[in-house]
Amino acid sequence: MDQVKIFDTTLRDGEQSPGCSMNLEEKIEVAHCLEKLKVDIIEAGFAIVSPGDFESVKTISENVKDCTVASLARCNIKDIDAAWEAVKGAVDPRIHVFIATSPIHMQYKLKMSPDEVLEQARAMVAYTRKYCSNIEFSAEDATRSDIEFLKKITAVAIESGATTINLPDTVGYTTPDEMEYLIRNVKENVRGAEKAIFSVHCHNDLGMATANSLAGVRGGARQIECTVNGLGERAGNTSMEEVVMALRTRQDEYQADTRIDATQIHRASKTVYNIIGQTAPINKPIVGKNAFAHEAGIHQHGVLANKKTYEIMTPESIGLRINNIVLGKHSGRHAVGKRLEELGYNLTKEELNSCFEEFKVICDKKKNITDADLEAIATHHTTDIYTDTDDGYKLDWFQVSTSNFTTATCTVSLIKDDEKSQDVALGDGPIDAAYNAIDAIMKPSPHTFDIFNIHSISEGKDTLGDVTVKVNAHGRTFTGRGLSTDIIEASVNAYLKALNKLAAYDNKVADQAGAAEA
Ligand code: KIV
Ligand code: ZN
């Protein structure tokens, strides 16, 4: 069985797409998920882009132990220096340099001749070699490049020290046949090709990213670049979960596998969706809500007789344990803890206690607590990025008055350091009114809303509302989440958490400025 390396670029190509930006804590959380998944390479970011990107690549490099950590760099000295500074603390650092090779990119974007591009690639791969031996070279827009030119630049990159050659389908234009041919042809006709691993990096503009990546493997690629949930520019990148499960399910066809622990897929997918404040489309392969549901009578009948009639992989294989036992207000701490453990959450005693407290509160409002509810509770209580800062404002109570013919009003009472503060405000709807009242009490720094997202955790009108709020201030994102059967309460709690983090950041900056003056 051949091994295919999984190069995950959720934190670079995924994160750079609109609506998917993450702050440092969120990126670290994702990096931990990727390490548990056992991806081979984490592309942690593009270090030169901003101080924030640099900091996150550096922090991830210093914290991740079981994966190679890479930073992207254009073929220029400044980018490569920054990439090295950011990844040098990693157990196995990689610098990923790229330059465009298609006629349209060379002429209009780079304004360089093919010879100049060739020379730049040679010089910059050689320059990278002074820092590290793990070098990836990407020929951006390879699938629209002249194949003879691709062969030349690949040979030059390998000669200069590149150990991985990536031929990306940057604009999602190619087809499986073309991709297989491209990889095979370049691999077979380039001097020194046996010294490098060939890689595919596909975008999904025509919905063929997974098929194209697998075709690349057939052509000889042994690295697939992909993202959790297929996040990425425009229509996204290849979905990690799709290529991993396709290779595993169809080993007969591909004779190749990855080292991924597939039982972590469900959790990684949930974590990434939670962080970006989205949910999977219900019919999304592998991670959508319906991916393992059998609704039609004829299907149910078949599955009851033998699961394999309609199931090509098991839910358990991706870490999803389907269970019809529903917990409720008579369930004890032990039952809740056991079920959470079965769902893959190994909680500390304190975490279990706080989950159980919330479980009891929710039981008073909702009769049956499903696995989805439990997972929502667990992620709210175990993920650092969502939990409260210790000293901030907490909700005491709120009261809204709203109708379809008057302006909404909300009174909010908050507690901080045992002191209560109240205010009342009008708004365009009850949530806007509640947020205006909170602003009047907390007087936060000016901020904008990157994301305000409400989604329901399960079916039924008593479902839990899961609210994610991301506010942006000082060029940073502050995230809060709230969970309640009452969506206004969930919205208020999510906003309070985000604003408490913003206030903690402001205080830290003020303290540092004070210390510098003193
Ligand atoms: O899509 C692309 O070509 C890329 C490269 C930078 C690898 O993301
Ligand atoms: Zn890309």
What's the SSE blueprint?
Elements: E1 2-3, E2 5-8, H1 10-14, H2 24-37, E3 41-45, H3 51-63, E4 68-74, H4 77-87, E5 93-100, H5 103-110, H6 114-129, E6 135-140, H7 147-160, E7 164-169, H8 176-189, E8 197-202, H9 209-219, E9 223-226, H10 240-249, H11 251-254, E10 256-257, H12 265-276, H13 297-305, H14 333-342, H15 349-363, H16 371-382, E11 394-401, E12 408-416, E13 419-427, H17 430-442, E14 448-456, E15 465-473, E16 476-484, H18 487-517
Parallel strand pairs: 1-10, 2-3, 2-9, 3-4, 4-5, 5-6, 6-7, 7-8, 8-9
Antiparallel strand pairs: 11-12, 12-13, 14-15, 15-16
Helix pairs in contact: 2-3, 2-12, 3-4, 6-7, 7-8, 8-9, 9-10, 15-16, 17-18
Bound molecules: 3-methyl-2-oxobutanoic acid and zinc ion.
Residues 13, 72, 98, 138, 140, 166, 168, 170, 201, 203 line the site of 3-methyl-2-oxobutanoic acid (KIV).
Features:
eight-stranded parallel β-barrel; alpha/beta; 4 domains; 518 residues; binds 3-methyl-2-oxobutanoic acid; binds zinc ion; TIM Barrel; three-stranded antiparallel beta sheet
Number of domains: 4
Mean pLDDT: 93
Q: How would you write the strand order of the largest sheet? A: 2-3-4-5-6-7-8-9
- The radius of gyration computed from the alpha-carbon positions, rounded to a whole number of angstroms, is 25 Å
Low-confidence stretches: none
CATH level-4 homologous superfamily of the largest domain: Aldolase class I
Biggest sheet features: 8 strands, parallel, barrel
The small molecules bound here are: 3-methyl-2-oxobutanoic acid, zinc ion
* CATH third-level topology of the largest domain: TIM Barrel
The total beta strand count reads 16
Helicity, in percent?
Answer: 40-55%
CATH class descriptor of the largest domain:
Alpha Beta
Strand content: 15-25%
Distance between the termini: 64 Å
What is the CATH architecture term of the largest domain? Alpha-Beta Barrel
